[in-house]
Backbone:
């Protein structure tokens, strides 16, 4: 493997509190050194990084890669390439595939497909319950043995409090987080958007904010009861934020994520029955968005995760009630973060990198998220100044369902490196 | 026939201006008379093809549209499709594009999903008229209610109108709210909080939770149908109790400071939201609403087809004669 030297870039590594102009040397797939005037090993590829930012590669704890089952909308390979194009060096794939990723063979299949793709790393998340039926625990030990880094029934909440208690308790043996999609199904029943004045005007069935917070509260109590690590997926409401803040103050093992779209859009985006604004949890109200932004700033919410959810064009090209939930996010996340979080002064650039790389690695105990010498050389080089327009037809993802088409964003990914190999551009 | 007074489609009353709504009501006036003739037909839309695309059961609205179309001499086809695109196999847009490939001019659509009319309107060239989409809007019902109130009171401005019942699931309520507010009425809604949509007061309406309060306040009540399914879905305990607490009864109306005009979009559940003595009583304008429905729909069809409002009187031709 040819050594790689990045010269003169702005090196940001939140894991070491580093934000400085320096060179980074990569040898044999690992970070060999960060500093000035380190020189280049023989035969090294020299990358002029002046004017650009070099950071640990982004890590997304929440993506849906649809393989096996819906290879027409995404595969592990296309998802991993979309991730690389978006500056991600690792993603965690949710298990709501068809069949469900609820056994060691299924986890092994994802690992094998990811290795063959040779793009971003893909870490499987195993199911909490067999078939995501919410009844019987999956074999966490074997899932972890095959490569799973967490368990989740995402797409569905864990309705049974007893099952959730058992999952949190049992997961302690393997020191893995249990990730929950928090939604009281009786309150959310048949809802298609946030319940509020916009759903009232549009005549669409609403999902009240309380549907999420009620289950967040339950999960936090079960985390306290069991001592397990609860990871709360795609938090969307002010009430949930308040519950998480209190739980963290009391020292519970809780982590939480928020999506770029919940940080930047409100339920107004559903106007005109825009099915690309239909997601679960739904886009909420301005005060929720503000609470999420502050929570991310303060670290009450640990990470930004995309909930990348590819859907076929036909599936979104229909009545709002019948369209599926979700949008793709891997190729717009960094741009949205730079434009809407850093550009607005909410986060510093190192804070954004921390929420998208260092913190996700810490929360799921993954390699990466750091440029410490000896670490795997998972890196992203981007130019924060370049402005570009979102054009879904150019996505590496197989799907195009995004509400951000046409939006101008800052920050173009110049190069993504995984284990010392350049995976974007290829 | 090129000028558009309403735009391409009629999707709801929310997007219309007060002037546009008044224009439709004024245009309906001369069309009322057509239905009173021995030969109820004028040649206004001769050669136009209209598809009535109904994805949801409807008797009154479909027949009313069909009469309006036939009395304007349009060629009409009724398509009764069941269920949503998912159940049906063919998508809504494919259905519409296939119809359009047969060269049609207008689609009247009734659909169980909110937004279906707009979805269609954005994807086909034909004029689209919303005949009720989910729990969103039912603009021609709103218009015929406005016309009926205007007939009765001579004005809309300053009237106090209360819409009573299942506001949460009612497209009639939403179209009435927009239409009445735009024409300067004061609007209230009344019903159990379990059937009241979140944030409804932000639309500019007063909320009553006791029918007695609404009756004290209002000049007219528009009483909505309460569907049996609401009881099974847990929104209210029983129809019996609904009648006891929210029913519009003679006894309650007798305590009002004035005679209230009573509207109902139908079909009625006698003995649930409205008592028979009220529905059949002297202050009920329920059948007048139905009559006005045809005239309002003729006006909408005429205007969307590009008809000039000032020509509506002429368009209906000389009274009492066949025009074909």
Residues:
């Amino acid at each position: 493997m040819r050594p790689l030297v990045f010269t003169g870039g702005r090196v940001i590594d939140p894991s070491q509190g580093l934000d400085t102009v320096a060179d980074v040397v990569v040898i044999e797939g690992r970070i060999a050194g960060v500093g000035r005037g380190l020189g280049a090993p023989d035969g090294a590829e020299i990358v002029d990084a002046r004017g650009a930012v070099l950071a640990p590669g982004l890590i997304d704890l929440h993506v849906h890669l649809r393989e096996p089952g819906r290879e027409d909308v995404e595969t592990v390979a296309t998802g991993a390439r979309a991730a690389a194009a978006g500056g991600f060096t690792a993603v965690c794939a949710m298990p709501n595939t068809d069949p469900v990723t609820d056994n060691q063979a299924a986890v092994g299949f994802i690992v094998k497909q990811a290795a063959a793709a040779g793009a971003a790393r893909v870490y499987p998340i195993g199911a909490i319950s067999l078939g995501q039926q919410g009844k019987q625990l999956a074999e966490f030990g074997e899932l972890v043995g095959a490569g799973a880094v967490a368990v989740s029934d995402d797409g569905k909440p864990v309705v049974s409090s007893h099952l959730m208690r058992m999952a949190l308790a049992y997961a302690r043996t393997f020191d893995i987080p249990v990730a929950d999609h928090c939604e009281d199904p009786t309150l959310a029943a048949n809802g298609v958007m946030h319940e509020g004045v916009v759903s009232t005007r549009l005549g669409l069935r609403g999902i009240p904010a309380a549907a999420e917070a009620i289950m967040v509260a339950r999960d936090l109590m079960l985390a306290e009861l069991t001592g397990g690590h609860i990871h709360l997926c795609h938090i969307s409401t002010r009430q949930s934020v308040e519950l998480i803040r209190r739980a963290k103050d009391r020292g519970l093992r809780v982590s939480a994520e928020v999506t770029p779209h919940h940080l930047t859009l409100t339920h107004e985006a559903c106007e005109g029955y825009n099915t690309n604004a239909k997601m679960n949890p739904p886009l909420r109200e301005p005060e929720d968005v503000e609470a999420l932004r502050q929570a991310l700033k303060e670290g009450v919410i640990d990470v930004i995760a995309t909930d990348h959810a590819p859907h076929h064009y036909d599936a979104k090209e229909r009545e709002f009630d019948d369209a599926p939930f979700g949008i793709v996010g891997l190729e717009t996340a960094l741009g949205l973060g730079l434009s809407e979080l850093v550009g607005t002064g909410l986060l510093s650039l190192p804070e954004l990198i921390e929420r998208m790389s260092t913190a996700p690695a810490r929360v799921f105990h993954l390699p990466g998220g750091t440029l410490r010498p000896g670490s795997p050389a998972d890196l992203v080089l981007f130019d924060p100044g370049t402005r570009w327009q979102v054009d879904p037809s150019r996505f590496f993802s197989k799907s195009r369902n995004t509400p951000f088409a046409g939006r101008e964003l800052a920050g173009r990914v110049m190069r993504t490196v995984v284990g010392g190999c350049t995976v974007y551009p290829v | 026939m090129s000028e558009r007074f309403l735009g391409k489609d009629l999707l709801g009353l929310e997007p219309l201006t007060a002037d546009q709504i008044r224009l439709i009501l004024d245009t309906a006036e001369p069309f009322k008379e057509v239905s009173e003739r021995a030969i109820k037909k004028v040649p206004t839309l001769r050669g136009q093809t209209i598809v009535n695309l109904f994805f949801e059961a409807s008797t009154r609205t479909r027949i009313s549209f069909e009469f309006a179309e036939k009395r304007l001499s349009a060629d009409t086809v009724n398509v009764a499709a069941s269920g949503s695109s998912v159940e049906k196999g063919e998508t809504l847009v494919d259905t519409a594009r296939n119809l359009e490939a047969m060269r049609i001019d207008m689609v009247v659509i009734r659909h169980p999903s909110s937004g279906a009319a707009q979805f269609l309107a954005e994807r086909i060239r034909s004029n689209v008229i919303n005949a009720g989409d989910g729990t969103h809007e039912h603009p021609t019902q709103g218009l015929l209610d406005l016309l009926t109130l205007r007939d009765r009171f001579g004005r809309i401005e300053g009237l106090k109108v209360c819409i009573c019942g299942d506001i949460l699931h009612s497209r009639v309520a939403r179209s009435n709210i927009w239409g009445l507010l735009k024409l300067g009425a004061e609007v209230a809604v009344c019903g159990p909080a379990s059937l009241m949509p979140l944030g409804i007061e932000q639309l500019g309406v007063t909320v009553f939770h006791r029918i007695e309060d609404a009756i004290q306040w209002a000049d007219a009540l528009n009483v909505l149908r309460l569907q049996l399914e609401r009881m099974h879905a847990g929104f209210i305990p029983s129809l019996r109790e609904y009648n006891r607490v929210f029913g519009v009864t003679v006894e309650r109306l007798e305590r009002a400071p004035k005679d209230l005009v009573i509207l109902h979009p139908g079909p009625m559940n006698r003995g649930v939201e409205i008592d028979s003595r009220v529905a059949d009583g002297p202050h009920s304008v329920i059948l007048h609403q139905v009559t006005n429905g045809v005239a309002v729909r003729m006006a909408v069809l005429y205007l969307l087809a590009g008809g000039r409002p000032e020509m509506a009187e002429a368009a209906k031709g000389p009274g009492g004669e066949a025009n074909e």
Notes: The interface with chain B takes residues 195-197, 199-206, 208, 272-273, 314, 317-322 of chain A (CB under 8 Å). The CA atoms of residues 29 and 420 of chain A lie 4 Å apart. The longest strand of chain A covers residues 379-389.
